[in-house]
Amino acid sequence: MNKGFIFDLDGVIVDTAKYHYIAWKKLADEMAIDFTEEHNEQLKGVSRLRSLDILLGIGGVKKSESEKQLLAKRKNDWYLTLIEQLTSKDILPGAERFIKEASQKSIKIALGSASKNALFILNKLGIDSLFDARIDGTHVSKAKPDPEVFLKAAESLGLPNENCLVFEDAQAGIEAAQNANMKCIGIGNNQVLKGAQLVVSGLDQITVSQAMEVLNSNILK
Ligand code: BG6
Ligand code: MG
Fold it and tell me: Among this protein's residues, is 53 annotated catalytic?
């Protein structure tokens, strides 16, 4: 089939946001920045360095570029320690079944993640082999909402952009899909996520046939 599904990772396939939060919070505490779980919502889908800029902005703290690199590395080292324990049990409900079913129906499967740790995480979850293409934070120079990550994923699958359907939990990711001229299914709360063709609370709440109806419909929001 000449159709593809492109999956974001964090928040769609695995709930890593809590670990990102713990690591950012530790860094924030060290700099006496009052960083809350609500603030953490702003970091979803956003690259590591952009996340750090948002955090520093919340605290009104200025750092040089070299200091920022060191701070981002410190955060990532803590984050890596936290996600070291990930196993297949951490895959979000329905995600593995949904991807396998799509694959059985000959839909091509790609990863489109901002994370530079994406391959490490896929291996920990034991689902790396389910993907025909894997585009992550190491392949892109522009962060979501720039469409680069999804355009590269479609290209890797050898498919036109409009033949691909994106699954995203972050507003920045939904906007990236729109900017790539791709339809998108939002994963999360439909009061929060705007601009997706459909929003469901998780991949356990949708069938592959329903997703294909979204991809094949003519309405592009
Ligand atoms: C995204 C997460 O998937 O990856 C963001 O939603 C995170 O919260 C970004 O900042 C970058 O992740 P990493 O693993 O490269 O620091
Ligand atoms: Mg995400």
Answer: no
